[in-house]
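S.,

Sequence below, as promised.
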Amino acid sequence: MRILVHEYVTGGGLSGRPLPPTLAREGAAMLGALLADLAAVPGLEVVATLDPRSRLRTPPGVAAVRLPPARAAAVLRRLIREADAVWLIAPETDGILARLAARVEAEGRRVLGPGAAAIRRAADKAALRRRLAAAGVAVPPARVLHRAADPYAVAAEIAYPVVVKPWRGAGCGGVGLARDPAEFVRAVSLARAQGAGRVLVQPFLPGAPASVSLIGDGRCAFALAVNAQHIRAGLPFAYDGGTTPLEHPRAAEAVECALAAYRALPGLVGYIGVDLVLTDAGPVVTDVNPRLTTSYLGVRAALGANIAALALEACLGRLPPPPGPPRRRARFTADGVVRCEEAA
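The prediction came back faster than expected:
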C-alpha cells in the first residue's frame, strides 16, 4: 500500500507564506513521529510532503517530496492520485482539514482518518455541543455570537469568567479567557481573527484539562490513554504539551465520557482525540479532534506500541485489540520533546 502523508504546516500547505514558528515545531514533531511509526509497518510505501523550508529528516525508506510554492496544489494533487491512501494532519480552522479530506475523496482515494463529512460534524463547535448534549454527554453551556453581533453590547450581559473560541478552530488557536467586559471584547477579536466570524462563548470550567486518545473503526472504539493537558488559561490560551497517563480519580469516567462522545459522532475512524475538563461534578467534553493530536507523541512513548499501525488497521475496517497498559509515564512538550520515566 502506498500512503501519502500530508502535514499541512510543514508539509507545504503554507508554501509561499510565512511559517508560524510554534505551529511549525508542533507539526514537525507529529509528522516525524507518524513517519517513524509508518516506516516500521511492513508492506507500506510511504511518501511525505515537505515545505521547501522544512529541515525535517524523514526516516529511512520514506520518500520526501517538497511542494514548490508556484505548483504546490498541482504537485499535491498528483501525489494524491498516485497514492492508495492519504493520512492528513491539519487544523480544522477555517475548514482546512475538511477541504483536504474532500479533495482526497474527490480523487477516489481513501482518507486514513475521518472523511470530510465527519470532520465537519466535529469541527462545528456549536453543532457538536448540541449533538453531544442530545446523546447525554456532558458539555458546557454555550452562546453563539454571530458575525454581525457587537461584542460591546454583549459584554455587559455575560457572567464572567468566560472562554471565547472560534466557531471552527483547533487546539488553543484563537481561544481566550475573559474576566471582564474589556477582556471579552479583546477575546472576541482574537477568535474572529482566526477567520471564524461566529464565535462560541462558554463559562470557564474549573478543573483538570485532559484528553482521551481513542482508536476507532467508525462503529466501535477503545481508549489508548487519558492524558493531562498542560494549558495556561489566559488571553490567549497557551498549550505547553502534556503528561500521559493522567493519574486522576476521574480518569475512568473520562474514558466513558469520551467513548460516549465517539458514539454520538458517526464516521470517526483512526486516531481521535477527545478534550475534556475533569470538574468536581465529573468530566465535561469541550472538543472532539478528528485527527492526530500532539498527545500522540506521549501516548506512543508511554505505551511502547506502534500507534500508527493500530490506527491504520482501524481505518481499513479491522479494529485491532487494545495494547496493554502504559509501560512508562511520558511528559511531552508541544514541540516534540518527550521524557519518560518507568511506571511504578
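Residues 69 and 137 are 44 Å apart (CA to CA).

Coffee later?
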